[in-house]
Write a structure and sequence with these properties.
This protein is of the alpha+beta class and 470 residues long. It folds into 3 domains: 249 residues, f41 fragment of flagellin, N-terminal domain (Up-down Bundle), CATH 1.20.1330; 74 residues, no CATH class; 94 residues, no CATH class. The strands form 5 sheets. The chain has a 5-stranded antiparallel beta sheet with strand order 1-15-3-11-12, with no helix packed on it. It is elongated.
């Protein structure tokens, strides 16, 4: 962009040139619009500079916002390492015969191997009527007791509507109600029967069915029977909870003569994935910061290269990942786990070292990250990340707030400047309109002046046909 003085000289030269042309008769007056435009282009240069500054601020805010988002991702990954219900506290299970018994572990489980013998599976009680002719159940009452018939846990009285003249209609009515059974119609060569199946498995769901319209035959349900580490366990379903803390057993078949082994172990895959996510998130932030100081093809640095906050942020992050913890275990810093610092400040995982730590000393890895006294690495790093990502007091947030305020101030200045420029443009237009009028009138005034001079006494006129006297 040309300097202010150069632009002003060019505009003034244009005006003088037009004035001279008007005086010499080459033109009639001046082009007021072009003259005013050239002057306003000079006067508008401060606004152009302010808008350029706003564009720079917008670029800085955008870059900081991106880094802030990456910091939030990093904070989440750090917090996941310190979460007592997170990735480092998950378990995986195994079974010597998953067809008989399998398992799923929650975050309250503990590592160990358990011996389980499944004596029998839980079954569900059912009851079926004798052959029933169409319409026999219309308007009938069916009474259902659940559990021990002498002391039932609950009862249902099912009144079949008189309009339900078929067995299928009766079954549909039962299924639409809030009863403890489901109904179906069984048809064979002998006719049709109404079958009821308990919604509750095991002995607690045993059915005792009676009706004046039909006779029902019931099959009892039984509880699952198993032993867990020698302790007898009774379950109304084949999904057993509570026998092993934090573990759900799923029974698939009975085999009372052969014990099965179920193992509960730390889920090292989830732990390794969580650590890899942390490293990726950390490297993303460091990479974004480093990119601000890298020269591009034009030989310039990033828009944040002059921001001292960025250097402070980088220093805080480097200190965070280098922090040692004061526990007595073999793992005292990230490097001892195989998470190593590179020359450019990023992290790299030595897969062999980390895998060995997770497989052979998992509890010590947990202790390194999640110890409460003294605080583990994840607890300390989590506190630091909370400060760095604070939406109002964090360094990135404060930086963005300051830049936004500067941007707002510039917008106000631009608005005031444009108001002033509008007034200036009106004034310049008036001034140059007046000058243009004078320049247009100038030839006429010169002619009038010449005519007046010619009419003065003693003035002489000559023509091209005059001759000298002899």
């Amino acid at each position: 962009m040309a300097s202010f003085s150069t632009s002003y000289s060019a505009a003034l030269g244009n005006i003088l040139s037009q004035v001279n042309d008007a005086f010499s008769g080459k033109t009639s007056g001046i082009d007021v619009s072009s003259v005013v435009d050239s002057m306003m282009q000079v006067e508008d240069q401060p606004e152009t500079q302010m808008k350029d500054e706003q564009s720079s601020l917008d670029a800085q805010i955008s870059a900081l916002t991106s880094i802030g988002t990456e910091l939030s991702t990093l904070s989440n990954s750090v917090n996941s390492l310190g979460d007592f219900n997170g990735a480092l506290n998950q378990f995986t299970t195994g079974s010597s015969d998953a067809a008989v018994v399998s398992a799923a572990a929650g975050d309250t489980a503990t590592a160990g191997t358990h011996t389980i013998t499944v004596t029998n599976l839980a079954t569900t009680s059912s009851s079926y009527s004798g052959y029933i002719s169409s319409g026999s159940l219309a308007g009938a009452e069916i009474d259902v007791k659940y559990g021990n018939p002498s002391a039932p846990t609950s009862t249902d009285t099912i009144d079949i509507p008189s309009t339900d003249t078929t067995l299928q209609e009766a079954a549909s009515y039962i299924n639409s109600g809030k009863y403890g059974v489901t109904a179906s119609v069984v048809t064979d060569s002998g006719g049709s029967r109404l079958a009821l199946t308990s919604k509750t498995s095991g002995a607690a769901g045993n059915l005792t069915v009676s009706s004046s319209a039909a006779t029902f035959t019931s099959t009892a349900g039984v509880d699952a029977q198993l032993t867990v580490d020698g302790v007898p366990v009774d379950s109304s379903t084949n999904t057993v909870t509570g026998a092993i803390t934090g573990v759900t057993l799923s029974l698939g078949a009975a085999d009372p003569n052969t014990p099965r082994q179920v193992s509960v172990e730390p889920d090292t895959t989830q732990a390794a994935d969580a650590l890899a996510s942390f490293v990726d998130a950390y490297n993303a932030v460091i990479g974004s910061i480093d990119s601000q100081y890298t020269l591009n093809s034009g030989g310039t640095e990033g828009v944040l290269a002059g921001d001292s906050m960025l250097q402070s942020l980088q220093s805080n992050l480097l200190d965070m990942v280098s922090t040692a913890v004061g526990n007595s275990g073999q793992y005292t810093n990230l490097q001892s786990l195989g998470i190593e610092m590179q020359n450019n400040g990023t992290l790299h995982i030595d897969s062999s070292t980390l895998s060995d730590a997770l497989s052979s000393s998992y509890s010590e890895v947990q202790n390194f990250f999640q110890s409460t006294s003294p605080a583990g690495w994840a607890q300390t790093a989590g506190t630091e990340m909370t400060k760095l990502t604070d939406p109002t007091k964090g360094p990135v947030a404060l930086d963005i707030t300051g830049l936004n305020q500067t941007n707002t101030d510039l917008s106000s200045q631009i608005s005031d400047f444009e108001t002033n420029m509008s007034e200036m443009q009106k004034q310049l237009t008036t001034q140059y309109d007046n000058l243009d009028t004078l320049l247009i009138q100038y030839p006429l005034q010169m002619q009038e002046a010449a005519a007046q001079l010619a009419s003065l006494p003693g003035s002489t006129t000559t023509t091209g046909n005059s001759s000298n006297a002899g």
